[in-house]
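A quick word before the example. In earlier lectures we treated sequence and structure as two separate objects. From today on, think of them as two lines of the same record. Here is Glutamate--tRNA ligase written that way.
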Amino acid sequence: MTVKVRFAPSPTGKLHVGNARPALFNWFFAQRQGGSFLLRFDDTDRERSTEAFAEGILRDLDWLGLKPDRIERQSARLAEYQAAAERLKAEGRLYPCYETADELERQRSRQRARGLPPIYDRRALKQTDEERRALEEEGRRPHWRFLLPNFSDDPFSPSRTEESWHDLVRGEQAIDLASMSDPVLVREDGTFLYTLPSVVDDIEFGITHVIRGEDHVTNTGAQIALFKALGAEAPVFGHHNLLQSEAGEALSKRLASLSLQSLRDEGIEGLSVAIFATLVGTSEPIRALGSMSELAELFSLDKVSRTTARFSHTELLALNGQLVATLPYAAVAERLSVLGVAAEPAKAEAFWEAVRGNCGTVAEALDWWHVVAGPVEPVVADEDRDFLSEAASLLPAEPWDGATWGAWTGALKQATGRKGRSLFMPLRLALTGLASGPELAALLPVIGRPSTLARLNGS
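And the structure line, produced from the sequence above:
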């Protein structure tokens, strides 16, 4: 069997870090199994779905490093869904209901008051054609419910009917169809809810595995029944733990601060988000990795915890700093140029290698470039002026390399008797204007002798 998975976002908003988790899980599962990854836009919501959001989703997935093998849009497949609905109607598996939302809520309230579960009682099945025509003459239009196969002969006498599956994350699972209301598949206006188009697509596209959040567990029983009603075998399901905000809230499109676009604009690396969203809430520790390939090697649904995972912006920033510190110059050269790091390639590479360990994001390198290129306001204490004059007089001739700093400070130590902080801090303050920063052994050759001499002399 060739593995085929899908990621099915609705283009009604921006992807957030919680959406990245199922996208990555499906991608890595396909990669590990030699399968394919389908991107399906669930864009049947005509009012809220936009092409701008769809394009944004494609950009976000590309930023994460995910390349769909196939792209489909549900808006182009309405005829297929309608055909499936007509088939179910003809077989008596999809039936019209004329209750309003208020009427349904009153029914549920009465059931709760009697200590009964608020399950739809299928009263619409008792209506005659004449009664239905009368309701339509009043201006009512039906929504259509899928008749769950939870009875033997009489639909008004449901009995325990389990749909079971082996979940890739949760193990053996079962849902009693008698504990559920018949799900609505078609709205009053003729548009489709999620379930029917999703099942029709999974059948036609040959989806073998559905990996998604655990909030869909309760939907799975009805979906398996719908697969069977349409003459198909259900795919293998896996329901992973959800990613919540630091405050314990469910992540949603309204939390714009956690959108992938906002994280990208903040300077976070796509690989950092991929690592965090994949490894958080698993038995693997979160740490910097060199590539998506390395992350794929670590991925396994067996490692996913049953407890809810928490997204931490602070931890993501720390991870990003660790990752940035490992990035080779080739990976950032173009971005440094765009930022305004204007130097010949050899000097730019030396600069990056000197400062990357002090950058939380690649963009922060620009602050250090300003230190290197100047002007810098040296910080010189009165008691250090003679020491800095001595340092200027002992400054080695160019060319400079990584050994220059050690040779220079060694000569200074011998000449002045200074050592430790009293030796190094005045030099750092004079050369950078800052009390901390990149190792001066690496930074000194990038600053160069003329600038170094000028700063020692206070100009």
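Notice the following. The chain has 19 helices and twelve strands. We will return to this example when we discuss secondary structure assignment.
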